[in-house]
Design goal:
The protein has about 675 residues and is mostly helical. The chain is built from 30 helices and four strands. A hairpin with a 2-residue loop joins strand 1 and strand 2. The longest helix has about 55 residues. It is globular and about 70 Å long. It starts with 15 loop residues before the first helix and ends in a 9-residue tail after the last helix.
């Protein structure tokens, strides 16, 4: 990759029009992620409950950027955004497209208002009152719908926003501190940035995205039509239930699932009941996944097939795992989950620690550049200092201040400072570094299996060390924040991981990294505050119980379940610790083999990918991408793959456009949550 250019060659990208376009897109994306999604749940666009497996990746900002270029070309033919302006816009909308803020607001409200359910209060009343919780009477307007009672929830809302904001900025500035070590020193591929860079270069070279005569642009438009038609052809389904569209009979939380279109498990569970057969294939996700290195795709695919197809009957025959139920499992998810949890060594538990184990060993084996980063905190190398987005002292000073602020607000909420510094902060650092490496080598797929289990493990440690005691507010808040801010579905590590994409692109487009920083430091606070406001307003106005008829159980189930975990800090984790510790040994060996034996084919991150929380749904995509990429390379080599890149960019952009239209049509015609059971 390019090491970036000297300041004299940098071209300004932070302009008034790039800022204006980004701010408009942030508001639009916020509405898509919050109210329009909550109201329709049609397009699975920025799905806050990431069941579709497309949440949190760079598909959306690539598609949004394409639409911006297209609209400006059509409306203002003489307005040509520079590649540097596009890079700045992309760095902002990439952060805005993450589900972190709306997901954070929604799940926080699920926990809080679920806890306030009248028949639960008697079970966990010793946790209340608390600055995290509004008065109990706010449960009714939230569940039944009504205006937001800001006079009653305003204090708790401010604490929610402040907690998420401080923690997110901490992840962001920590990433800036390691920017040279991650982006420059290690020369990692950042595969998901490639489609964006290609789109930038097409725009810069052709100046007019509508020039159909160009062969490259023809490929982009072919891909665009593929992705666009795939989603837009579902529009009639919104009005005509039996319209012949690409769907399967699978019901997701009580509604017909439009896009999960190749679910063969009901038809095959009598013949191969252990194999899930859940083919979650979405064109934009396959297109983006094709940029993952082939060896990683191969490792993930073979490992997935072994765990889910090949090994179960062998292990049952050897008596090493329990047989499956007569007639198969109730669904493909149960089959897949059982394959992980019934496997000798409890693979499901082993992979709870995969991201920490890989982060630990990557730090060990990359200690030299990390140490150079640490030594350069107060005096960065002279040849690198001009490439910093802001002065190095300011970066690390901000990290220190944000750690202090985090400790203060956590203490105010109720988490002991000992738990914060001894357990939460060190493990969060490893999770952050693992997320950075995962993003750089694979892409921003942050949903690790371990959202719940990782939280339980940290609570177990807190109990074993005597920091947390059962039946206390401190234990309960540690449970909630360990999950919400550090692990699982809404990990704020994405702020740090995705911010690195902006600087990687800057180094390849002569964009001043200071311009990227300006846009990102505007975006993060704006997105958290705006999206929290939009999500709270949306859920209250729709009524969670009415708007979420298909799945009201998790509103209460998570809260009640977390309360029980807080009152039982051991929660059976003593017997699971060896499996978690085993992952450190396993991945230590894999990283060492990969490091010292160039011919070693097993990629450690490829083994870890099926251990993602959404690995159950992403594994089939990885397998499909592996087959397609292998065929492309076998037939035409890397040259043919490079020629296919414009098509892949077009598929990503077209899918985004189709999903937006599908969602807007549903909202315009008042079609809330189709096909409720």
């Amino acid at each position: 990759m390019s090491q970036g250019k000297q300041p004299s060659e940098w071209v300004p990208g932070f302009t008034s029009r790039s800022v204006l376009i980004t701010l408009v897109l942030i508001v639009f994306i916020g509405l898509l992620q919050t109210h329009w999604y909550n109201y329709t749940n049609i397009a699975v666009h920025y799905n806050p409950w990431p069941e579709e497996g497309t949440c949190g990746s760079l598909h959306e900002p690539i598609g949004m950027l394409f639409l911006v270029i297209l609209l400006l070309t059509v409306i203002y033919k003489k307005v040509n955004l520079t590649i540097q302006e596009l890079a700045v816009i992309f760095s902002g909308i990439a952060l805005a497209s993450m589900p972190f803020a709306p997901m954070g607001a929604m799940v926080t409200m699920q926990y809080v208002f679920g806890t306030l359910r009248p028949d639960y209060i008697k079970n966990i009343q010793f946790f209340l009152p608390h600055p995290w919780f509004p008065p109990a009477e706010t449960y009714i307007p939230f569940y039944e719908s009504g205006p937001v009672p800001w006079d009653k929830i305003g204090g708790a809302f401010s604490i929610w926003v402040l907690t998420f904001l401080i923690w997110s900025l901490l992840q962001f500035f920590l990433s800036l501190g390691f920017i040279r070590q991650v982006v420059h020193a290690e020369m990692l591929p950042f595969p998901y940035a490639t489609p964006a860079l290609h789109l930038f270069r097409i725009t810069e070279e052709k100046k007019n995205i509508l020039n159909f005569k160009d062969l490259t642009l023809k490929r982009v438009w072919i891909g665009f039509l593929i992705g666009f038609i795939f989603y837009v052809h579902f529009v009639p389904v919104l009005f005509w239930k039996d319209f012949p569209a690409l769907w399967g009979p699978y019901l997701a939380y009580g509604r017909r699932k439009i896009f999960g279109w190749l679910h063969f498990y009901p038809a095959t569970k009598t013949a191969i009941p252990w194999f899930p057969n859940n083919w979650e294939i979405y064109p934009e996700l396959v297109a983006a996944t094709l940029f993952i290195p082939l060896d990683m795709l191969a490792t993930a695919s073979i490992w997935w097939l072994w765990v889910n197809l090949i090994s179960p009957p062998i292990l049952v025959g050897l008596g090493l795992r329990k047989p499956w139920p007569a007639g198969g499992y109730s669904g493909w998810w149960s089959a897949s989950w059982d394959n992980w949890m019934q496997h000798p060594g409890k693979l499901g538990l082993t992979f709870q620690s995969a991201i920490w184990a890989l982060a630990f060993w990557e730090l060990i084996f990359n200690f030299k550049p990390v140490w150079q980063t640490i030594k350069g905190i107060w005096s960065p190398p002279s040849d690198e200092s001009e490439k910093e987005p802001i002065p190095c002292k300011m970066i690390w000073g901000s990290v220190i201040v944000l750690i202090i602020l985090s400790a203060m607000i956590y203490s105010y909420i109720g988490i002991p400072l000992a738990y914060f510094f001894v357990i939460l902060l060190p493990w969060a650092f490893l999770y952050w570094y693992g997320g950075i490496r995962l993003h750089a080598e694979v892409g921003p797929v942050q949903y690790w299996r371990g959202g719940g289990e990782g939280r339980d493990f940290l609570i177990y440690l807190g109990g074993q060390m005597g920091i947390l005691q059962p039946n206390t507010k401190e234990a309960y808040m540690a449970v909630e924040l360990s999950r919400e801010l550090t692990f699982g579905y809404i990990s704020s590590v994405q702020w740090g991981a995705l911010s690195m994409t902006g600087y990687y692109i800057a180094a390849n487009t002569k964009t001043n990294p200071k311009d990227i920083f300006k846009m990102q430091i505007i975006t993060i606070p704006l997105v958290i505050v705006l999206y929290f406001l939009l999500e709270v307003w949306s859920l209250f106005s729709l009524g969670f119980g009415k708007g979420w008829k298909a799945a009201p159980y998790w509103v209460h189930g998570w809260s009640n379940g977390d309360a029980s975990r807080a009152t039982d800090l051991a929660s059976g984790w003593a017997q699971n610790v060896p499996y978690l510790a085993g992952s450190f040994v396993l991945f230590g060996i894999l990283v060492a083999l990969r490091r010292f034996l160039p011919w070693w084919p097993v990629h450690p991150w490829g083994i870890a990918l099926p251990g993602l929380y959404l690995g159950i749904k992403l594994d089939s995509t990885l397998f499909v991408a592996f087959v397609i990429k292998s065929l492309i390379l076998k037939i035409g080599g890397s040259r043919l793959f490079e020629k296919s890149v414009p098509v892949l960019v077009g598929v990503i952009a077209g899918s985004t456009a189709g999903r937006i239209i599908l969602e807007l049509v549903g909202a315009a015609f008042g079609l809330p949550r189709p096909y409720l059971a």
